[in-house]
Write a structure and sequence with these properties.
The complex is a heterodimer of chains A (about 130) and B (about 325).
Chain A lengths: L7 E5 L8 H12 L3 E4 L6 H11 L3 E6 L4 H14 L6 E6 L3 H10 L2 E4 L5 H11 L3
Parallel strand pairs in A: 1-2, 1-3, 3-4, 4-5
Helix pairs in contact in A: 1-5, 2-3
Chain B lengths: L3 H8 L3 H13 L1 H11 L7 E7 L5 H14 L4 E7 L8 E3 L14 E7 L11 H11 L3 E5 L10 H4 L2 E6 L5 H10 L5 E4 L7 H16 L6 H9 L6 E4 L8 H16 L1 H34 L1 H11 L5 H11 L5
Parallel strand pairs in B: 1-5, 1-6, 2-4, 2-5, 6-7, 7-8
Helix pairs in contact in B: 1-2, 2-3, 2-5, 12-13
The chains are: A alpha/beta (about 130), B alpha/beta (about 325).
The structure holds guanosine-5'-triphosphate and magnesium ion (MG).
Magnesium ion binds next to helix 4 of chain B.
């Protein structure tokens, strides 16, 4: 759009588990890489997440899962985004995701799958290199 | 670029169009011009409220609670939360939404986080234009949370009808900050976190400070009359708890009172004229700065002048005057 475009990322912690340390670390790393990072806190429902995406218009979304809720929540979020006609946002998933689930999530349109030990540099590069707009 | 499609959708009430237009405003000042040009007619209906105060004073929590109250009155609300950009990395962490988890419906509440991108004064360059977008979108009330640095977030008073400053019990710093420039722009002082010890003390501190600084007399009829002659609003003080909503009804009454004050013809037109003036200055500052920056790096004559300044045969003021002449602004 223009040279001044700054990458805007939404970092979300969907589901009920109460740990957002990982999400916060990622949020800070992306900020330190010069991005504008919206952090929404714990316990985000798919509706919360989609509403925030609509209003904030981020270039990328990073969803962080630890508890296995990805299998139920990820399809719902993607469905709601489709309903809204939103298809130009990079949807990243990170956290603890078993190998066999990655394939399913990939088919839905999710990318990334950085586990807890991933270098932060790698997460930053992932966002930079996979933007859809 | 042609934005007529997005603007048409905005006028139909599309939330996504609003969001996309704001992104464009933030990133491209030339686009802002085209967009504002075609929606300006549809602005001027919204009531604009500025909320400022030190970091952690409870601005986001406050906005969340007052939004619930406004929703009960059937209002449509727009919220803009400005946070600081890191001068080192250019990045920003926008965390105000953490305090706004009330399951607001997409139809009635539009929240947008915004980094200030280095602009001083507590707002981002795009904030004023975003207010206009939300106005044209049909928001009845637009609430702006400024960067909470504590003393320099004064720009909001140029756009807002009502400026609310949050203070908290205990800290004395916020009173100091107010002395440094916020006092004159404050319409309502809200002592937030009234559940903590020291809230009454804080109210007393504010009254004392006002008395010292503006011939303010909290009880005397005469002082009030004098101030009215100056067409001044006497800042009101209220204690609140933004988590429980305690005393928000009193606060809403005060806001109504201030709204009525602002609605008076003379007051309103002088507000409007000042707003337009300061906005124009802001726009000119961008445009002229850009023009001068381009000139200073590319113009042969200026290059010569610079070397003259280097060898002291010209001084910087004289060079500036030459540049003013060069861009045709000599009076
Ligand atoms: N006890 C008490 N705590 C409050 C009250 N209002 C807000 N808080 C708490 O104060 C903390 C800061 O609140 P925020 O709403 O994030 O404050 P803020 O001014 O928006 O902060 P920044 O945007 O970071 O400058 C949170 O932990 C709130 O829960 C109140 O009335 N009483
Ligand atoms: Mg805040």
């Amino acid at each position: 759009m223009s040279k001044q475009k700054i990458i805007k990322v939404l970092v979300c912690k969907p589901g009920l588990d109460g740990h957002d340390r990982g999400a916060k670390v990622i949020a800070r790393a992306l900020r330190d890489a010069g991005m504008e990072v919206i952090y929404t806190g714990l316990h985000q429902t798919p509706d919360d997440i989609v509403n925030t995406i609509i209003q904030e218009d981020p270039d990328a979304v990073m969803l962080s899962f630890l508890s296995g809720a990805h299998n139920t929540l990820c399809p719902v979020i993607m469905e709601k985004l489709k309903d809204q006609g939103i298809d130009d946002v990079l949807m990243g998933v990170g956290g603890i995701i078993p190998e066999e689930d990655k394939i399913t999530l990939e088919k839905l349109g999710y990318k990334g799958f950085q586990g807890p030990g991933t270098e932060l540099k790698e997460v930053v590069e992932f966002v930079r290199n996979n933007l859809k707009r | 670029m042609d934005y007529s499609d997005l603007i048409a959708k905005l006028k139909e009430g599309s939330t996504r169009a609003v969001a996309r237009l704001i992104t464009i405003l933030e990133n491209d000042i030339n686009a802002s011009e085209a967009i504002i040009n075609s929606i300006y007619k549809d602005t001027g209906k919204a009531y604009i409220m500025g909320v400022t105060g030190a970091p952690g004073s409870g601005k986001s929590t406050f906005i969340s609670t007052i939004t619930k109250k406004f929703l009960k009155k059937g209002k449509k609300i727009g919220i803009i939360c400005v946070d600081p950009t890191s001068p080192l990395t250019g990045g920003a962490l926008l965390g105000d939404r953490i305090r706004m988890k009330e399951n607001f419906s997409l139809n009635n509440v539009f929240i947008r986080s915004m980094a200030n991108r280095g602009q001083l004064g507590g707002l981002a360059r795009a904030t004023e234009d975003t207010i206009k977008i939300l106005d044209a979108y049909g928001c009845d009330i637009i609430i702006v949370e400024t960067v909470g640095v504590g003393q320099s977030e004064v720009d909001i008073f140029k756009s807002a009808h009502t400026v609310i400053v949050l203070l908290v019990p205990g800290m004395g710093d916020d009173i100091q900050a107010i002395k440094a420039g916020i006092m004159e722009i404050t319409d309502i002082f809200a002592v937030n976190k009234m559940d903590l010890p020291g809230a009454d003390r804080k109210v007393t501190d504010i009254i004392q400070m006002l008395e010292m600084n503006m011939n303010y007399n909290y009880t005397s009829e005469n002082a009030n009359k004098n101030n009215m002659k100056l067409k001044q609003w006497i800042p009101e003080i209220v204690k609140i708890n933004s988590i429980t909503g305690e005393n928000f009804d009193t606060l809403l009454d005060i806001i109504e009172k201030h709204k009525a004050f602002m609605d008076k013809l003379e007051i309103y037109s002088s507000y409007l004229i000042n707003r337009i003036k300061s906005e124009t200055i802001q726009i000119l500052r961008y445009k002229l700065t850009k023009k001068v920056e381009e000139l200073i790096h590319s113009n042969k004559l200026i290059e010569e002048n610079i070397s003259q300044v280097v060898d002291k045969s010209l001084d910087p003021y004289s060079m500036a005057n030459l540049i003013i002449k060069l861009i045709g602004l000599e009076d």
